[in-house]
Amino acid sequence: MIKPAKDSLDLGIIVSDIKASLDFYQKTLGLEFVGITPLWFGTMHRLRFGTSDFKLIEPKTAPPKGAIGLENQLGFRYVTFVVKNLSEICAELKRKGIEFALPEKELRPGVRIAMVKDPDGNIVEFVERN
Known about the structure:
With 130 residues, this protein is α/β, with parallel strands linked by helices. Helix content is 16%, strand content 43%.
């Protein structure tokens, strides 16, 4: 079986508009910029959240867009950021006009969540556990 080399997962997302995606993930959400890596099929822009690398990939040739939404296609459907300031994040995202897929709500006692859409319609979930 696999043996973790670190306590987190990394994620790569193929994006249609690197500027819009960097604005959303880096400027709006505050992920730290790490670097740029050329790839055989495009350019990877690495951001960091905790110990996770969040990789936005600008393809040389844009592939067709898949179905948007949690229940519209098989495969990875959303990314989760576990946070300490959910209400503050939601207020700021609302102020900036970010589209919510699920407004802030209590999922179960002690667990609050919210979901928004990134520039490509991918679901970004925020979870706060008390």
